[in-house]
Structures are given as structure tokens and as C-alpha cells.
From TrEMBL:
It comes from the Bacteria. The keyword Acyltransferase does not apply. PANTHER family: RESPONSE REGULATORY DOMAIN-CONTAINING PROTEIN, STRESS RESPONSE REGULATOR PROTEIN 1. InterPro entries: Bact_response_regulator, CheY-like_superfamily, Sig_transdc_resp-reg_receiver. Keywords: Phosphoprotein. The modification 4-aspartylphosphate is found at residue 54. Signal peptide: none annotated. It comes from Haliovirga abyssi. SMART domains: REC. SUPFAM superfamilies: CheY-like. This is Response regulatory domain-containing protein.
Length: 128
């Protein structure tokens, strides 16, 4: 069983880091996009297990993707992880209210992110 993961990240250095961390791992199918439009395209085509996104994207706010997943698609099975440099307490609380599951502040520890994603994967595998 592969875990389908979508990373939505506009910053080049973080895109490279995420690619390096997950591309060699055969448990995961990953796609890295940098904006909301590309993310919407993937959401329409692929059944995802995990979405990792920034709240600050080149073409808008990451909350838009959270709303699409939780309100339009009515999908609570997708785990949503936010990794962002956004520090506004109100905005982060709002993101949790919209339905995110986890939050990391940039810069983040990639080993902790990988451990979290591995844990989500193992849990989903047991539930399948």
C-alpha cells in the first residue's frame, strides 16, 4: 500500500528538501506543486492520504485548499499538515478551525515531519 502525498510549497529550498526526503521512499507516491491551481488539479485526479501545505502560497492562501478538502469534498480522511512561516496566532487557530490536523513552524525539523508522516502511513495501513 502506497501513501499518496501532495506537498504544496512555493519556496524552492523547501521543495528540494521535501523531494530529497521522500522521493527515495518506496512507501510514498509524492507530488510537489507550488500553487493552489496545481493543487486543485491534483485533488481532482488523485485520492490523497496526506496533504502538506504552506499557508503562504504564490497565488493565494493555503486555507483555500483546506476548505476545498473539508467543505467541498467533505473528506476527513486526508491528514492535513501545515508547515509555514506564518506566525499570526489568529490565522493558525483559524486553520485548525477549518480542519488542519498538524502544524509546524518554519524552519522545521525534517526528521520530525518524516516521523509524523510515517506514523500516519502505518496507522492508515492498519486500518485498511
Amino acid at each position: 500500500m502506497l501513501a499518496n502525498i501532495l506537498f504544496i510549497e512555493g519556496t524552492k529550498i523547501y521543495k528540494e528538501l521535501l523531494s530529497e526526503m521522500f522521493n527515495r521512499d518506496t512507501k510514498f507516491w509524492i507530488k510537489i506543486v507550488e500553487n493552489i491551481e496545481e493543487a486543485k488539479n491534483i485533488l481532482d485526479k488523485i485520492d490523497l492520504d496526506i496533504v502538506v501545505l504552506d499557508l503562504i502560497l504564490p497565488d493565494g492562501r493555503g486555507e483555500e485548499i483546506v476548505k476545498i478538502i473539508r467543505e467541498e469534498k467533505k473528506d476527513d480522511s486526508i491528514q492535513i499538515i501545515v508547515i509555514t512561516s506564518e506566525t499570526s496566532e489568529d490565522r493558525i487557530i483559524n486553520a485548525f478551525n477549518l480542519g488542519i490536523d498538524f502544524y509546524f513552524e518554519k524552519p522545521f525539523n525534517p526528521n520530525i515531519l518524516k516521523a509524523l508522516i510515517e506514523r500516519i502511513y502505518e496507522k492508515k495501513k492498519r486500518e485498511a
